[in-house]
Structure prediction request, 446 residues.
Amino acid sequence: MFWNNGITRKNEHRVFLLAAVMLSAILLPSIPLHPSLPNIRFEELLLFGIFGLNVLSFLFKGFKFDEEEKKALLAQKKELKLLIIIFILLTASYFISNFYGVYVKKAGYYGLRDVMELVTMFKYFLIITLTLSVHIGKEELDFFSKAFLSGVAFLVLLGWGQHLNFLNMNTWLSPYFDQLHWQLLLIGNPARVLGTFDNPNYFGLFTVISLSYLTVRYFFGEDQDRFPWKLFIIIGIVIKLEFLTISRTALFGIALLFAVLSVSAFLYHRRNKKAVIKIAALFLLTIVLFATASADFFYRLNEGLDFSTSTSFQGHMDRWGAAVGSIWQSPVFGWGTQKYVMTTLVDNEYALYARRYGFVGLGVYLVFFLMPLILGIRNLKTRTGTWGRRAAFDQPAQFAAAYIAVLPSIFVFNFMAGIFYNLQIMTVFAISMGLVYNSLKYGSEL
Prediction:
């Protein structure tokens, strides 16, 4: 609620701040402070720093809002109230489970790493409410689109540079982004591209999130009378980028995303010939890119499908089994964060979250992701009517549609890895959440 004050009072400031947060998450590595301290990210410095300045400004003004600020708060009152309730529930679950784990179950002690989890939750609150506070008109949308596509273009160039080891960049540049996984670019079997992310699977998931917006615009954008060749080419480039990461979960996520949007476009456009052509073209593009993928891609794909010999699958099962055992020992409130005494390597975010916060906390976690879905579906129906009545598919509707379409892929990804605890990719997805809440404020003005 403090994004409407002080240094970010004007919409232009919030627009640039949001763009900076987005590009920081896409392009920049984390910043190491001390070996005993967790790394921080540049967007965190921006978010917490400017939020602090806004709070100070609010205090100096005597806890008062001016008329412009009151008007802005009133426009987002319902969405803010809902977000505050969700994050109060997340915070309450955090404190209850940690108290229960430390003082009732006596499982360990509460440390600095446990505090950082609460800071992480607050970071997501700031990102979503910042996105909600921005007024997104045509100029702002054009600016965001160019900033986002610029970030994607950089990752495409970097990804191909890593794949080809252009100018030996995997030795002198890639370690700058990640010290832990960059060796995968040189000695991986097969080698996998990771872009600016700390893991190739998260880079793959970024391509899925990117494709949700690109494909929604491909099917439901304003250029309905002509084939969107530029979007078609960009979609192909991003698909190919995912192939370079050789992320099997992200590959399945793309397939699921395309299936959801193709069926939706077929129904929304009422079997229109142009919609059928777009669906067929997207299917053929995917098949061609898949058939021409590298031998390394197919090697890793086949390795993952043979469950009897897949080291990845067997490793996942071992970690799930250990997590499930501890969950059933404390199923209601969990064990708390307990990061010093319990491993964080579970490879299943539902199991990890349930172990920390129990099934009560897991329910709140699901509400956090599902509430934008529910609100987005309602908003989409209001803006576009039922599938039997075609109406304008404006930009706020496209924001909602992108989130609705990609969430099933996110939920699948969370079975094999997890998005909530990855500060880089979750920053991008929190903006997607915020865009859904933002879209509830507008009529059909975009």
Residues 4-9 have pLDDT under 50 and may be disordered. Residues 137-305 form one domain. The two ends are 24 Å apart (CA to CA). Residues 349-384 form the longest helix (36 residues).
